[in-house]
Amino acid sequence: MKKSLFTYRVLHYCFKIMRYSSLALSLIFAFCSLALANVSYSQKILENRVSLKLKDAPMDVAFEQISKSAKVKFAYTEAVINKQLKLNYSFNDEKLSSVLQRIVANHHLVFSIVDDVIIFKKTASKTSNQLTDIEIRGTVRDTTGISLPGVSVLVKNNSKIGTTTDVNGRFILDVPEGSVLSFSYTGFVTTDVKISGKEVLNIVLSASDSRLDEVVVVGFGTQKKISLVGAQSIVDVDELKQPVRSLNNSLAGRVPGIISVQRSGEPGKDDASIWIRGISTFENSLSAPLVLVDGVPRSFSNVDPEDVASFSVLKDASATAVYGVRGANGVILISTKKGSVGKPKISFRYNEGVTSFTKLPKFADGITYMKMSNEALVTRGGVPLYSDAKIEATLNGTDPDLNPNVDWMKKLFNDMGGMRKANLNISGGSDMSQYYVGASYYNETGLYNTDALSHYDSQVSDKRYNLTANLNIKATKTTQIDLGIQGYLENGNYPGTATNTIFEQAYYVTPVLHQPQYSDGKFGDNLSNTIGNPYVLLTQTGYSSRFKNQLFSNLRVTQGMDFLTKGLSATSMFSFDARSLSDMARTKRPNTYLATGRDKNGNLIYQTKYVSSSDFLTYSPTTSTERTIYIEAAINYNRTFGVHALSGMLNYNQSDLMTGSVGNTTTSFINSLPYRYRGLAGRITYGFKDRYFLEGNFGYNGSENFLPSHRYGFFPSAGLGWLISEEPFFEPLKNLIQFAKLRATHGIVGNSNITGRRFAYSALVTTTNNVYTFGKTFDRSLSGQDIGEYAVDVTWETATKSNIGLDLYTLGNALKLQIDLFKDNRKDIFLSRQSLPAYMGLLKNPLGNVGIIENRGVEGSMNYFKKLNNWNLQLLANLTYSKNKVIENDQPVAAYPWLEARGQKVGQSFGYIAQGLFESTAEIAASPVQTGNVLPGDIKFKDLNGDNKIDAYDKTAIGYGDVPEIVYGFGFSLGYKGLSLSTLFQGVGNMDIWLNGEGVVPFQQGLSRGNLFNNIEDRWTVENPNPNAFYPRLGNGTINENYTQSTWWMQSGRYLRLKNIQLDYGLPKKLVSILGFKNANLFLQAVNVLTFSPFKLWDVELGNGRGANYPNISTYSIGLNVDFK
Amino acid sequence: MQTIQISPLTVLVLMLISNSILMKKIINVSVGLLLVLLTSCQKDFFDQVPNDQLTIEQTFQRRNLSEQYLANVYNYIKDESYLAGNMAPWVGLSDEMDITYDRAGFNTFLVNVGNWSPSTPYWDSELYNSYYKGIRSASYFMQKIGGNAELLETTDGKAIITQWTAEARAVRAYLYFNLLRAYGPFMILPEESIQPDISPKDPLMTLPRNSYDECVNYIVAELEKAKTDLPTHFTAQADIDYGRTTQLFCLALKSRVLLYAASPLFNGNSDYSGFKNMDGKALMNTTFDMQKWKLAADAAKAVIETNLVSLLKKNNSSGNLDPLLSYRDVFLDAWNVEVIFARNNNNLSVHERHNSPRGLGSGYASNGPSQQQIDAYFMANGKRPILGYLANGSPIINPGSGYSETGFSTAADAYTRVGTYSMWVNREPRFYASINYNGATWINPIGGIINTTLSGESGMAGSHDYSRSGYFIRKNVSPASNPKTNVYTKRPYVMMRYAEILLNYVESLNEYASGSSDILKYLNMIRERAGIPQYGVGTGALPIPASQVEMREAIRNERRVELAFEHHRYFDAKRWKIAEQSDGGPFYGMNVSANAPAFYQRTVFETRIFKKEYYLFPIPQIEINRNMNMVQNPRW
Q: Which residues of B touch A386 (CB under 8 A)?
């Protein structure tokens, strides 16, 4: 009990200090609550004995002495103490309970016990015809018998009398006889009980139909879910707990409206790109959604899923208009977990798994490679490059130093990597303060091969530590303080050479050029100015360690202002975030050689390719930092008048972001200036009978990019919701459809980001270093000045968004359907003006608000849940389809309609239409003239303009592009008792992959470099003129237009993936209990398990090119989840 | 601005104090209001572009910044040293040479095989757009430099302004000429640059092209204007100012402009009779005007008469003229007597890398002179080895030249090793200064024998860096440079030199004053320095070309050799209207896909397509689309 005494004392001081409270001390207070959380909870203290005599003691002195005698701490506000009163009492070994009874009865006080502290409060001031108060005590439980802490207990029509239940669900309250007590608790049906002499009440609250009371996060606030009129998706946060590093990578297929692709699986650099409802502007990068974590614009990729309490995606104008110039691309809102009243809840989750590549490209072996090289020459009249003897020697493995046959992929990569993930969190609190503290660890090891002999580790790996703390303090009855601190530290380790370079060289090199490492230890190479040996790049060029850290902090104060008018409150938030990244490269370059033969002693003869200047690592650091200050202040109003529900919000916000960098990262004066935003946002909602909902939103924003006179823009939106199923006329249909709601919204949102151009209203002078040199001996080297970009008076892009949605529940609420149709008309898109003639001589065409893009689509989701005895089944599915169209791009009218980019998708590819392979020289002679050496087996293109030659005029829009138009996901979850199996399949459609680059294009750069894929056998040859071959007739170099962008090289990139599968086993309650847990689950979790796609060459999600990037990975993990008692 | 960020904290503290001490509603109210009010009202939140950022106005208030602006104008003069680059495609597009690479970014390959149209933007940004950018930059400079306060305060400020303006004007004229020679008639823009925010309806947005003659007259007038305010020659300047435009630059450019204007393509070319603007204005003259040849001759003569430049001649150790050294060092000796204009900033190191042997010197050996160019070099006796070609491509060997294509040399001579293929033996010194052939010694003192056969050190096997003709360039490669050790010799890139002026002069003189004694005098001057017998005079004299036609032939042959790989041949073939013969058809080299002896076989490495429209580059399609008054060049 020593500890308890200590904490009592601390608490005592805290309470005393509360009277002179300040922020710092309230924090201490909060931590005290945390400390207390472990102490026993009981009302045993009421059994303590009191022996004491008081004579004319002032009230506060009396209280102090009683508390001392009873060894219990009292807490009270000043209002409790009547300074005029002198007390006279005599207690002789009396129970504290009876002592308190007497005192509270005499002084119109009530007491409650929180964390073994007795808290006194005044009862409601007496009104004239006061009925006799009676003391009511009791316990509130849910239907399963679990006690409910924090339930609000109020006297109906007199909210001044009331309390909340303690941690054990108990309450004591003096109420006038005959009054009605109302028990309310979020998520439960409010229950009223008439007091008729009953002194002990056992109340059972039943869970409410969640759809009526469920509250969701919306822009700058929360709202009842039922009243939403906008297009907003709420993600089940449990689904996000996947064994992957980044939250970004768990979203595809889970959320209707999110289009997402993951282009790399490299640890620490594998964030998926995310677009809400696709792309509506000319730059993919400018289409990124605005992300807010706990109300502050922040990146969310490194937030640990375990710490996430809610995840919402706002898609239409009514949901995003409040963000004004930042909302046009949609908004993602994340809030982190907060504590709730009750005993500390401790939970622990651990994953351990192995990773492997989903698909690694496969190259042809050396023998095939040489045969193909010879064929490429011979088939076009040349002489073979590799002799039969050489091929024979390679085949037999004679002197592999001189006749190498290297499987580079095998040389570079391991079969397996690993991942580990752990999270421990604790939450709880009293009605005065709640806390959530979480700590996470993530570790992923990549699949690179390393050289065991080198003195450093060049394996790619990523470790991350997250800490999250949220504290919610009720500073006064009407004042709420919320503090959130989160941070992470990420440590990455990478080879000395960037991944893309390693891959690039793996595609440049051939299997027969040289050994990765010769038998005598020398490293092979074929180039001299750069390293051409990917194995050397991977294992011998040093390593680079990177650490990245981030601190998020936010402090919010909310002041209830019911005294002014009921339902009014004000809130203010201050937040600062800091981020830094340091990349410390420790690199070197080893000597490399090319073996050319053997001398007469049998020793290898080498050509020296590179002589290293140093055997040791050299060091070069790069750092970048960023800090953001964000402030907001708002007034909220929320009140129900009978059947009318009214709410209003007015919010002021501003942010100020500054970046700094040292090292290789280019920076400029302009970029060093803070990036600033500010705006006003407002919302009015009105609900009638929970059946009709009206909502109006606006954002009024300013952006630094525009002339002072044109800086602010107003972005309004409005929405309408109609809960048809609540209409009397719907009654007959209720058996069929339990819930039906129609939603419609329309509004304008903006975007003020301009590609690479800040402060467009000021002209730029570009300085080029050492541009021209005068002087006989070159001694007058001058920098150059020119007008880089002229000043322009531009304004924001505006997106007019419309959305119509329908929510339906049917099959007895088991099946829930949601469907939304949307149209997004983006105009005044910033573009470099394309129509200015070149003779104007502008360095860069000035920006103008000239682009127009239309984006429309549909998204839907369904959720079916059925529980039967011990079984439960859930089916989930969602689909997003979005298609954009360029209406105006300010380009001059194209020479032929098929060359016109207007009417096509953003970033549409243009190329030839392949009509198959030429079958004969006669066919070639009779066809339009094609460039270069054209023989049978070469691709025949379509002459679109009929001028009998194939040229740039014959290119037309081909393919869907590499951003999918369709993204879908579906899955099921099947549970039986403690066992459950769940899956998520995710797929995309209407996406193409354009094959290009060395590797995919055989011998693009001649016969000296460039690997071949192992499907090279599938080609047109004279002996086997297969018209459907994958490759046309081989050739040495780009000798004709076979490899020009055409439909021949467009392949469907659609795929369906078994993205996640999870088998969960809840340990039997008995066992769990014996182990001292509340709950314990064992689970198997796997990511990217199976992929179905017509595309076979590389991981389909990597997209265009030749698959030369770190592939996505599959993860198989086993995990444990424990909630402690 | 400073208070704003702490205000919420202040509010918080205020609120907490107020809550517990006073518990007054009024305080709460004011806190609520404060929460909202304190965070707003900060007028200068967005006004953070500071005034001391460099603005264009300040650039023209300070001397050094203005000079930097001028330096940038100079930089629009294309650096033509890197032959495989896109700044100067002229050598790779001509019959002088092949650039091996057929991959993206090396556009000469695509054009040579006929894949070219107005909408293939091969050089839109490097050439067409860039010239106009330079013109704008120069115009803007001339517009603004007069108001430079710092310069005006110094004593010689006004003189500097005058000179700099003239320099910018000369550069601008040069850029206009660049447009003219490649794209034909251009739009003469207003003296002052067009406002960037001009209305799309303004006539300046839809300027029609000016006629060829108007363009020529404009350039000439501009050069005259610039000339008056410039120093005579770089030698008249302080060492530190070498490289600026001078009077001699203007005169030499004028000579080139007028030579082109007098040539058959542009002087009375009936092929261009339909080349008209939308309003019917003819863009090309269709009647021949002999006077234009006179103007061209006078312009060249004017340069000669300044006596400021001469041909570089160097003697060997025994005191006699060393022709190889003389010709070679025109390009290696910085600011030598022959240089009229040179560019200090250049890419010669890249040129040298592309023209160094691969195995010996880590070069790329990838700029392959054509067999036609090899054949053009004279024999040591001054005679032409090849007089033409038969229909099957085999050469018509000049019987008296001593040229042979069989066998190998049995002894070394001044320039060749023993065992050299006879084709390359007994050629003129300029051949040995300009061409690397199989079996030649690498010029770097490290030495070694260049081998361009299939499996040779610079051969096709083993790399995409090789020459498709089996030759690569030796001209303008310094013996001191070694790509293997990343050592390159820094030197100015010669862009105008005296030999061109002499050749301009004799060519135009032969046209309008055939038989003038000056013709032989100056043509022989070139041959003398080249170390080959002259026409009619000196040891081993050759017969004087008998007719105007023969003389024209002799002059053209001389020009082709003397100015090889200096970006003249492409335009010469066009203005002489011989491009159908010179630029199209089979291109020959050695058989690089074989080892010796099959290697020594004239072999077609490429069949080039030349179409009549190629006489002028196509105007980028996008410009035709943008400007309704813009007409395309003929036949495109």
A: none
8-state DSSP, A152? E
Gap between the Cα atoms of B451 and B433, Å rounded: 18
Q: Which H/E stretch holds residue A503?
A: helix A499-508
A772 touches chain B (CB under 8 A): yes
CA distance A116 to A7: 11
Taking CA atoms, A233 is separated from A229, A236, A301, A722, A739, in Å, by 12, 10, 18, 18, 18
Secondary structure of residue A1114 in the 3-state scheme: strand
What would the pLDDT profile of A928-957 be if each residue is shown by its tens digit? 988 878 999 999 999 999 989 898 889 999
Peptide bond into B597 cis (omega under 30): yes
B189 touches A: beta carbon within 8 Å? yes
Best of B191, B339, B344, B350 to mutate (most A CBs within 10 Å, chain A) = B344
B1 touches chain A (CB under 8 A): no
Min Cα–Cα distance to chain B from A179, Å: 29
pLDDT at residue A969, rounded to an integer: 94
Residues constituting chain B: 636
Cβ atoms within 10 Å, residue A989 = 17
Interface contact B20-A26, CB threshold 8 A: no
Which of these, A194, A164, A202, A163, lies nearest to A176 by C-alpha position? A194
Residue A533 to residue A497: CA distance in whole angstroms: 12
By Cβ distance, the residue of A569, A785, A1008 closest to B72 is A785
Whether the per-residue pLDDT at A41 is higher than 70: the answer is no
Q: Write out chain A residues lying below 8 Å of B25, CB-based.
A: 563-564
Helix (H) or strand (E) holding A549: strand A542-560
In angstroms, the Cα distances linking A437 to A106, A485, B441 are 43, 10, 77
Cα separation, B523 vs B380, whole angstroms: 17
- The pLDDT-based confidence of A17 (bands split at 50, 70, 90) is very low
Token pair listed for A390: 């050489």
- pLDDT tens digits, one per residue of A451-498: 877 778 888 999 999 999 999 999 888 889 999 999 999 999 999 998
Q: Which of A539, A362, A418 is nearest to A1106 (CA)?
A: A362
Task: With CB atoms and an 8 Å threshold, state whether B35 touches A570.
Answer: yes
Which residue in chain B is spatially nearest to A557 when comparing CA positions? B12
Cα A1042 from Cα A918, distance rounded (Å): 11
CA A69 to chain centre: 56
Amino acid symbol at B65: L
For the whole model, what pTM was predicted? 0.78
| Tokens at B319, concatenated | 């005191």
Question: What's the 3-state SS for A665-707?
Answer: CCCCHHHHCCEEEEEEEEEEEEEECCCEEEEEEEEEEEECCCC
Helices (H) and strands (E) in chain A, counts: 14, 54
Q: Which two tokens stand for residue A227?
A: 């009243």
Average pLDDT over residues A310-321: 90
User: Strands A109-114, A117-122: parallel, antiparallel or unpaired by DSSP?
Assistant: antiparallel
Report yes or no: A538 and A523 within 8 Å, Cβ to Cβ: no
- What are the start-end ranges of the H helices in A321-438? 366-378, 388-396, 408-412
Cis peptide, bond prior to residue B121, ω within 30 of zero: no
Q: What was the pLDDT predicted at A129?
A: 47
State mean pLDDT over A713-732: 93
Residues in chain A: 1125
Phi, psi torsion values for A198, nearest 5 degrees: -70, 130
Check CB contact under 8 Å for A1009 and B464: yes
